[in-house]
Amino acid sequence: MGTGAPMTAATLTPDGATAWLRSLSIDLRAVVVLDAAGAVLAGDPGLGARAAAALAAAPEAPVVEDGDLLAARSAHHAVAASVGPFALRRLTRSDLAAAAEALEGA
Length: 106
Known about the structure:
Helix content: 25-40%
Structural class: alpha+beta
CATH architecture: 2-Layer Sandwich
Shape: globular
Strand content: 25-35%
Radius of gyration: 14 Å
Largest sheet: 5 strands, antiparallel
CATH class: Alpha Beta
CATH superfamily: Dynein light chain 2a, cytoplasmic
Distance between the termini: 30 Å
Mean pLDDT: 91
């Protein structure tokens, strides 16, 4: 039984996205949020440079992996993480993509 009210996706700020992702896994070494041009909006600047380069090398890919780096992009943002050996990579990719989409409403 629904109320008929439409559901809307949650929105996150760049700082909120980094905090949310860190709360999901203890095996994220660093997290960063980038704008569409690759500028760091929140998080680790060193990881931001690595993520921007990896994303630029695969401009059509929605998700990029390069060693310990996982990154997901939306229309105007990208979110990346450096993961440790115990991170569940498939789940982390999904969480990064969800965070990137949630940034679109911010």
